[in-house]
Amino acid sequence: MTTTTTTNTKTAIVTGAARGIGASTAKRLASEGFAVAVLDLDEAACAETVDAITAAGGRALAVGANVGDEQSAADAVARVAAELGAPTVLVNNAGIIRDNMLFKMTADDWDSVMTVHLRGSFLMSRAVQSHMTEAGWGRIVNLSSTSALGNRGQANYSAAKAGLQGFTKTLAIELGKFGVTVNAIAPGFIETDMIAQTAERVGMPLDDFLAAAAKQIPVARTGRPEDIAHAVAFFVSEGASYTSGQVLYVAGGPTS
Predict the structure, then answer these.
(1) Whole-angstrom distance, CA of residue 13 vs CA of residue 9
(2) For the segment 57-84, what is each residue's pLDDT rounded down to a tens digit?
(3) Choosing from 34, 157, 189, 235, which is the catalytic residue?
(4) Domains of the chain listed by start with CATH number
């Protein structure tokens, strides 16, 4: 692992980092020399990601927080700043699904998804922006989805992920003059727990579900969390300082 000295290390927060895309991203950023706050609703669930980072020579901190709760989000960022260093990178990855057709979707299904994806990204971004503007350097990466283009049975999730794209572009305009870039990544079909939940919802064995999806993807395979982590690593790099307000679809082929 490539690491820097503690005094020069930038601190990153990755939400929803106990598993899947978040865990892969946290490990990748640690390998790039960042100290990483591994944030998830259940702090104990972050242990595996933290252990993997520290075993490879990196610095990591497990943080339990509800990103959709204003006080919890603010407290989490304050703790990271105190224990790991002022956060100047934020990856808003935390997410849930409550899929259903519109006529069966409850208000709670709608509100829960909006709270985690949109409210959570807003609260976390608002809490870290002062650290970024003070440093004159920052990176925010929001996790959108190809579902932002519309997806049957995901009115709530699609709306939230589309909202994140508008949120991204607005923050890029507001924060650019302070040396802060804001971009979004829209993953396609990525092998995560959410995909397993979707397969269960539609009544298909997971292996069959993955195989069927791969047949529809131009690169003839489904995505892996590492594919998204690579894209995050680009957006937070020094070389991406002139790239802001963009939505990068990482989906194995073109999207419409």
Answers:
(1) 13
(2) 999 999 999 999 999 999 999 999 999 9
(3) 157
(4) 6-188+223-250 (3.40.50.720), 189-222 (no CATH)
